[in-house]
Amino acid sequence: MTENRIYVTQPHLPPLEEFIPYLEQIWSSKVLTNCGPFHQQFEQALCEYLGVKHISLFTNGTIALVTALQTLRISGEVITTPYSFVATAHSLLWNSIKPVFVDIDPVTLNLDPDRIEAAITPRTTAIMPVHCYGHACDVERIQKIADNYGLKVIYDAAHAFGVQCQHGSVLRYGDLSVLSFHATKVFNTFEGGAIVCPDAKTKKRIDQLKNFGFVNDTTVIAPGINGKMSEINAALGLLQLKGIDAAIQKRGVIDQTYRDGLTPIKGIRCVPDAAETVGNYAYFPIQVGPEYPMTRDGLFQKLHDHGIIARRYFHPLISEFPMYRGLPSSAAANLPAASKVAREVICLPIYPNLPPEQVEFIVSLIANQIT
Predict the structure, then answer these.
(1) Could you tell me how many helices (H) and strands (E) the chain has, helices first?
(2) Domain stop point among 207, 241, 275
(3) N6-(pyridoxal phosphate)lysine (modified residue): where (predicted)?
(4) Which residues are within 8 A (CB) of 355 and not within 5 positions of it... i.e. 6 or more apart?
């Protein structure tokens, strides 16, 4: 990572000397993986921190999504958003499930509940919403629709670590919620992920599926996969938990600095936090509207020219990639809000150790105080 560039995110890491005792324990025990002691401790610690009953750790969030769908035996069609990272839809294809894309709410950028019912067919078995940028979906309305039609709900909660809604952790909603602990996330284990589930029976099935389908040394009951998190990743997770509250607090300060500086700029819209939630400040997306003196791509290039490596999350839409664009639900006319947002959004750098002067520099660039 070059010194004169500011990236949209950087991994939050503890001091190396604090990690060494964990590595020494792993070397001493000679247990490197297969649900060892750190793996078990980390699962318990996450349950306590996140306020959930059961959690199963994974090697990454994509494998966790694939396994979540297998756990609930989802088939046929699944309603989801085109405005997400491509792993959301890829997990469906890996399970031979047809994605059905539904438009997003133009304010929250999450799956629009008003459009879900019209997309339900006799082949629909589930809804897979995404808590985009860590902003909670309208979980109550989505659950009501699912209950009315007998559908499962699997949340792609890759961005939603620690997010709270009015009734507690947003991860408790739906049948399953899937987290990512990738290095770019608010909370990371280098690579990693997890499935949050409501009961011990479901966790047992998940644990079997992530270990090739084994139930004992000689019996395999399902075509599972190797999705287990290693002891090194779990140990890092335990250490990271100690500093996560301070890290989120620092992100919140940066978020507010951006909002204070950017809100007055004509043509720039800061995506609002969801009402009645406690967020994690996972990303800082702005929309560049027609009132701004240059296009989104023009501003994107200007930022890059000054060493600000912002990202156009999420452009293009998932529905525009070759393996999806032939689907009827991928038509741009079906996705007007998502198509517009994908042309307008830039995610600005936000991470705990981003210096205030760099935040102010970015704001000045966008305000055209620096050419």
Answers:
(1) 12, 14
(2) 241
(3) 185
(4) none
